[in-house]
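Postdoc handover notes: sequence design on the structure in folder B. Input tokens:
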């Protein structure tokens, strides 16, 4: 009798431990950990998703005054063709209502809500929010942390969990960047960027360093046309300490590299270059977080055929604002059927996105 009771007790304890392991709550601080329970949770979600649902994790559409209309985005949500949404401009309270409605509509298939909440853009993107100094005028770590704290309170209230900031391009004078950067001196940019990233991710919001490999010392605006780094990649060194500090995502800019034998992009934007995305950022710089494209509807890239597929093949995990989300999905899935190595690469990208969502507390409903 005693033996049977002992076995029953051990069985019950085992179930309890198992349940506690499965229900473990993860945070963004766990993302880079070697936690076997987190890896198991990611695998379980991945294995439960269809092929379309998996690839959809990589696609982020737009919504808001400068994005696509709600009527156009709603079918993408219902058909589970996107894994996230960037809100571009509008009223924060309306955004809050939209996000609540969308998350309810996509119940069991959580969407990652994002925004360009840079200090320089914040009040313009969401009128009625606290007015900020331009990013370039925030000169100390304390000023950065105070600004980020104020931004994060609004993002949390509205329902955003991914901020496409900070800008670490080394120039306040670039046509596209202006006062959005943290400055013109790499020695001061890095510690300020790390403060920005640490404060953001402490608040359970993913931070994004941008625009890799460096937009500060180029001429022109990638919103309008392809721009070039001529020769040495002078801004890449800023990313190493930022990666070591734990930044969770990096945005690659639509910037070509020429007159550089090792890192030439052969006339293509860095977003579509395996040399920049995979060889340099992923492998040489040992970045294991999320690699995001800049918006794929920008002038520097939108005229290039199959740009979404090329960005995925280059190694990007998240494709931001492809002109046609359904075509983006189909092109990636079709290529996966033909190329086993590419299929494995997409699996790794999808699992990175799922891992981030689990660390944000998002729940996937099992089918």
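Designed sequence:
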């Amino acid at each position: 009798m005693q033996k049977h009771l002992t076995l029953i007790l051990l069985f019950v304890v085992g179930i309890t431990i198992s349940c506690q392991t499965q229900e473990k709550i993860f945070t963004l601080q766990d993302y880079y950990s070697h936690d076997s329970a987190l890896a198991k949770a990611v695998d379980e979600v991945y294995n439960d998703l269809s092929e379309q649902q998996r690839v959809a994790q990589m696609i982020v559409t737009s919504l808001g005054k400068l994005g696509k209309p709600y009527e156009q985005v709603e079918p993408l949500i219902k058909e589970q063709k996107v894994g996230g949404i960037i809100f571009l401009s509008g009223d924060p309270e309306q955004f809050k209502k939209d996000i609540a409605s969308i998350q309810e509509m996509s119940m069991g298939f959580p969407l990652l809500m994002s925004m360009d909440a840079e200090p320089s853009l914040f009040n313009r993107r969401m009128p009625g929010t606290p007015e900020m100094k331009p990013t370039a005028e925030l000169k100390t770590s304390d000023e950065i942390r105070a600004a980020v704290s104020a931004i994060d309170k609004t993002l949390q209230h509205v329902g955003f969990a991914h901020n496409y900031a900070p800008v670490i391009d080394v120039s306040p004078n670039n046509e596209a960047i202006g006062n959005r950067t943290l400055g013109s001196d790499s020695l001061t940019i890095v510690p300020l960027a790390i403060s920005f990233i640490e404060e953001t991710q402490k608040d359970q919001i993913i931070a994004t360093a941008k625009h890799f490999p460096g937009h500060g010392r180029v001429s022109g605006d990638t919103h309008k046309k392809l721009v070039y780094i001529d020769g040495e990649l002078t801004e890449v060194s800023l990313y190493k300490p930022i990666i070591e500090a734990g930044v969770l995502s990096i945005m690659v800019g639509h910037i070509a590299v020429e007159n550089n034998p090792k890192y030439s992009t052969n006339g293509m934007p860095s977003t579509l270059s395996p040399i920049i995305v995979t060889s340099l950022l992923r492998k040489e710089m040992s970045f294991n977080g999320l690699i995001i494209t800049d918006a794929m509807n920008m002038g520097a890239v939108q005229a290039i055929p199959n740009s979404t597929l090329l960005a995925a093949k280059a190694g990007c995990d998240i494709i931001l604002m492809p002109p046609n989300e359904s075509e983006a999905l189909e092109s990636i899935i079709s290529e996966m059927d033909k190329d086993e190595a590419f299929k494995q690469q997409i699996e790794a990208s999808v699992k990175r996105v799922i891992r981030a969502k689990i660390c944000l507390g998002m729940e996937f409903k099992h089918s």
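Context for whoever picks this up: Confidence is low (pLDDT under 50) at residues 1-22. Don't rerun without checking with the PI first.
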